[in-house]
Amino acid sequence: MKTKIKKISLVLFSSLLLASCGKESVGESEAVLQQFKQAVVDLGSGQIDLDLSVKGTSSQQSVDLEGSLAYLFDRRDPQVRKEEAHLKGGGTLSALGELTQADVDVALRTIGEAYYVHLDKLEVDSPEFQTFKLLAEPYMGRWLQVSDQLIPQSLLQLQAQQEALSDEREKMKQIFVSAPLLKVLRDYGVEKVDGRPAYHYQLALDKEGVKEYLRQVAALDNQTPPTEAELEEAAQVADYVESLELWIGKEDYLPYKGNLAFSQQPAAVEGLIPAAQDVDFGFKVAMKMSRFNQELDLQAPEGAEIFDPLKALVSASESGALQPPLVPSSDSGVQPLPSEPSPAMLESVVPEAPVLPQE
Questions:
Q1: pLDDT at 110 over 60
Q2: The whole model's pTM is what?
Q3: Are the C-beta atoms of 34 and 248 separated by less than 8 Å?
């Protein structure tokens, strides 16, 4: 129960980022936020463009990454999920004295139960990554469909369950709309965003509102009511937000623009964020949203090939692209492995797809 409450609180935080993704009185600003949340849950399709920056250090590791993410979604047909995420970015990672540089350009698309990937750039200077890079190189610049064998069955089952529970989804939406999740810290009045009038607010997550939201979600799912300690721990997500700005359309109440700064975590989040006293971590997002309720070109890519990593490994080995690694030998110290991969070798390079825990 405790772990599920934490996951729900993080999903809520992500939903608010997606949603955000003359002066008025406090009562009027609250009414605008209410209309804003309703407009978000009613939104059928759109595009979210994010500029991302992640910087952090600790006694043993550091991270400095920057990039952009374009996310398109079309959920007007609840039976056919249509989404695409296009990530471009790079930076450095340092751990235990080892510095790794990375540069990626990858798109992921979901159409119904089919998953596709398009890889344009994949540069990682880690020696452990070279085998995967050799496998991926023949497929660069082409749409690939992920083989069904690589998709965890638990993920497919969860997706089917979510699509079947339309009544529950509607109730979840109404809980989201009615819960007092946001509070206005400063009202900047009406400004123009790309020529359109928008309310500009500085906001914060309301911890008591987050708790009430989690209580209602647990009741909807017939779960054991969360304890006050569990709610308090889950609501700490509000403490992570250093600043949150949002521009809400004056005429349609949709999120036009947003800025988020996420500071060093004050406590651990089980399974996601480790506890550390010496961590200096920062995460910044600049968001713009467009193409509201428009027709988006989200279709199964024409000519997409089925990607089977086992076949790719055999092909790379036969072509000589993969050099036989050296392993200890009882007499000479090291010796090359056979050029033909054994079943054990294949399993070590392409591990079995993980099974997600059932809630």
A1: yes
A2: 0.73
A3: no
